[in-house]
Amino acid sequence: MAQFVFETDLHGLLKLDTPIPNAPPARWQRKAKESGDPGPSPAAIVSPMKPINRSHSSSKTPSRTPGKSGSKIQNTPTKAGGDRYIPNRSTMQMDMANFLLTKENDPAEESPTKKEQQKAWAVNLNGFDIEEAKILRLSGKPQNAPEGYQNNLKVLYSQKMTPGSSRKNGRYISSMPDRILDAPEIRNDYYLNLIDWSSQNFLAVALDNSVYLWNHTTGEIIQLLQMEHPDDYISSVSWIKEGNYLAVGTSNAEVQLWDIQQQKRLRNMTSHSSRVGSLSWNSYILSSGARTGHIHHHDVRVAEHHVATLAGHTQEVCGLKWSLDGRYLASGGNDNLVNIWPCTQGDSGDFAPVQTFTQHQGAVKAVAWCPWQSNVLATGGGTSDRHIRIWNVCSGTCLSAVDAHSQVCSILWSTNYKEFISGHGFAQNQLVIWKYPTMAKVTELRGHTARVLNLTMSPDGATVASAAADETLRLWRCFEMDPIKKKEKEKANSAKSSIIHQGIR
């Protein structure tokens, strides 16, 4: 840096004068000492803290150093690489600098309209106002970047982590059941479907020759029915979508229809010749699968209820489920087949499956339709197969398959997450939650000491009930939603229902 000398004028004021000649460079001083030359005298080196009398001449010729003869003049070294830089004032734009300094102190000349226009341009180009998003500041805590701001230049400390690089914390899933209920005398039969949860929050459980209803809201238990003959037993139960009627299949080939509010049997439909192990509703059509391998459609509104027969299995139908849109019926049997049936008859007047899947090597009891993809079906095989397969029923292709390493007894899709849960038998007797479509395991729920027979889900989709051969029912809160997302979902559903009501009016 250049050294400057302050001089005293006639009024005793200090003012900045031109730079004094440079002192010899440090390297020159070192060389002089090595050669024995004492170098310049101390008087030749001017201290910046001491005023010196100099003439007010405007000449640029270096002044004489006091205490030296007139022949010796100290000039600024011309050798490149000196220690200090002395600016040349003749090349400086002093007028321009003075103008800029005075302009900073003047009030802003920009009109409010021009400021608003510049702000609008900034918002359109960057997505936010730059003046409100300055990161570097002279004082105070630096601000965070605006939400969603992405810097393509990857400047350090100018933005938060991108959404892709930030790790999302997984939700907490309790490994313990929320509640355990006794289920004495539940039949340990792989081919039966003994529990179902209604939209009105009633859990129906078939215990040998009786059906009990458990009110999840109040905890009240009601015995709905009991078979007259002690050798007969309940082989399947299924709620209608509205939750006010319960269909019951029995070992003596009957299909009964019960009114829950009046606790009264409305109909007793007989068309099968063997036990009815599976039931599924599609509006007013009730489909029932029997041990003979036949599936019957019942129109519960008319006296002649038996309206169609589906003959596509050679052994007992143990899995039966209508798709949510009512277009297809999926059936799984002890013959290792999965059939996809249409909702309407063909040109010949007979029902024929539109797809038949033969990849399973064991009985297929677990069948479940994806709630957000109407043409996607999940199926699970028995002990000799142990695989879960995902199908596209329109193209007939297997989208994915995973080895569950144990008997697959039941599958349920979550309505709150892109996941599904499976219940298993030998050897772990556990429940497994799977991520879809990656088929990665989310967690395993253990607690049953015998194979899981059936699974069913609460109306809000948060709780799964599992019935097992250890004569217990366990309730797992494995799909509980975040409160904020739950409110958003309820708001969306209410808006959807209001639109439907407006359309009906």
Automatic annotation (TrEMBL):
<dbReference type="GO" id="GO:0016579">
    <property type="term" value="P:protein deubiquitination"/>
</dbReference>
<dbReference type="GO" id="GO:0031146">
    <property type="term" value="P:SCF-dependent proteasomal ubiquitin-dependent protein catabolic process"/>
</dbReference>
<dbReference type="GO" id="GO:0007064">
    <property type="term" value="P:mitotic sister chromatid cohesion"/>
</dbReference>
<comment type="pathway">
    <text>Protein modification; protein ubiquitination.</text>
</comment>
<keyword id="KW-0853">WD repeat</keyword>
<feature type="repeat" description="WD">
    <location>
        <begin position="445"/>
        <end position="476"/>
    </location>
</feature>
<dbReference type="InterPro" id="IPR036322">
    <property type="entry name" value="WD40_repeat_dom_sf"/>
</dbReference>
<dbReference type="InterPro" id="IPR056150">
    <property type="entry name" value="WD40_CDC20-Fz"/>
</dbReference>
<dbReference type="GO" id="GO:0005829">
    <property type="term" value="C:cytosol"/>
</dbReference>
<comment type="similarity">
    <text>Belongs to the WD repeat CDC20/Fizzy family.</text>
</comment>
<dbReference type="GO" id="GO:0031915">
    <property type="term" value="P:positive regulation of synaptic plasticity"/>
</dbReference>
<dbReference type="GO" id="GO:1990949">
    <property type="term" value="P:metaphase/anaphase transition of meiosis I"/>
</dbReference>
<dbReference type="GO" id="GO:0045842">
    <property type="term" value="P:positive regulation of mitotic metaphase/anaphase transition"/>
</dbReference>
<feature type="region of interest" description="Disordered">
    <location>
        <begin position="15"/>
        <end position="88"/>
    </location>
</feature>
<feature type="repeat" description="WD">
    <location>
        <begin position="227"/>
        <end position="268"/>
    </location>
</feature>
<dbReference type="InterPro" id="IPR015943">
    <property type="entry name" value="WD40/YVTN_repeat-like_dom_sf"/>
</dbReference>
<dbReference type="GO" id="GO:0010997">
    <property type="term" value="F:anaphase-promoting complex binding"/>
</dbReference>
<keyword id="KW-0131">Cell cycle</keyword>
<dbReference type="GO" id="GO:0040020">
    <property type="term" value="P:regulation of meiotic nuclear division"/>
</dbReference>
<keyword id="KW-0498">Mitosis</keyword>
<dbReference type="InterPro" id="IPR001680">
    <property type="entry name" value="WD40_rpt"/>
</dbReference>
<dbReference type="GO" id="GO:1990757">
    <property type="term" value="F:ubiquitin ligase activator activity"/>
</dbReference>
<keyword id="KW-0132">Cell division</keyword>
<dbReference type="GO" id="GO:0033597">
    <property type="term" value="C:mitotic checkpoint complex"/>
</dbReference>
<dbReference type="GO" id="GO:0005813">
    <property type="term" value="C:centrosome"/>
</dbReference>
<dbReference type="GO" id="GO:0005680">
    <property type="term" value="C:anaphase-promoting complex"/>
</dbReference>
<feature type="domain" description="CDC20/Fizzy WD40">
    <location>
        <begin position="181"/>
        <end position="476"/>
    </location>
</feature>
<dbReference type="GO" id="GO:1905786">
    <property type="term" value="P:positive regulation of anaphase-promoting complex-dependent catabolic process"/>
</dbReference>
<dbReference type="GO" id="GO:0031145">
    <property type="term" value="P:anaphase-promoting complex-dependent catabolic process"/>
</dbReference>
<dbReference type="GO" id="GO:0051301">
    <property type="term" value="P:cell division"/>
</dbReference>
<feature type="compositionally biased region" description="Polar residues">
    <location>
        <begin position="54"/>
        <end position="78"/>
    </location>
</feature>
<comment type="subunit">
    <text>Component of a complex with CDC20, CDC27, SPATC1 and TUBG1. Interacts with NEUROD2. Interacts with dimeric MAD2L1 in its closed conformation form. Interacts with BUB1B. The phosphorylated form interacts with APC/C. Interacts with NINL. May interact with MAD2L2. Interacts with CDK5RAP2. Interacts with SIRT2. Interacts with isoform 1 of NEK2. Interacts with HSF1 (via phosphorylated form); this interaction occurs in mitosis in a MAD2L1-dependent manner and prevents PLK1-stimulated degradation of HSF1 by blocking the recruitment of the SCF(BTRC) ubiquitin ligase complex.</text>
</comment>
<protein>
    <recommendedName>
        <fullName>Cell division cycle protein 20 homolog</fullName>
    </recommendedName>
</protein>
<dbReference type="GO" id="GO:0090307">
    <property type="term" value="P:mitotic spindle assembly"/>
</dbReference>
<dbReference type="GO" id="GO:0090129">
    <property type="term" value="P:positive regulation of synapse maturation"/>
</dbReference>
<dbReference type="GO" id="GO:0000086">
    <property type="term" value="P:G2/M transition of mitotic cell cycle"/>
</dbReference>
<keyword id="KW-0833">Ubl conjugation pathway</keyword>
<dbReference type="Pfam" id="PF24807">
    <property type="entry name" value="WD40_CDC20-Fz"/>
</dbReference>
<dbReference type="GO" id="GO:0005654">
    <property type="term" value="C:nucleoplasm"/>
</dbReference>
<dbReference type="InterPro" id="IPR033010">
    <property type="entry name" value="Cdc20/Fizzy"/>
</dbReference>
<keyword id="KW-0677">Repeat</keyword>
<dbReference type="GO" id="GO:1990756">
    <property type="term" value="F:ubiquitin-like ligase-substrate adaptor activity"/>
</dbReference>
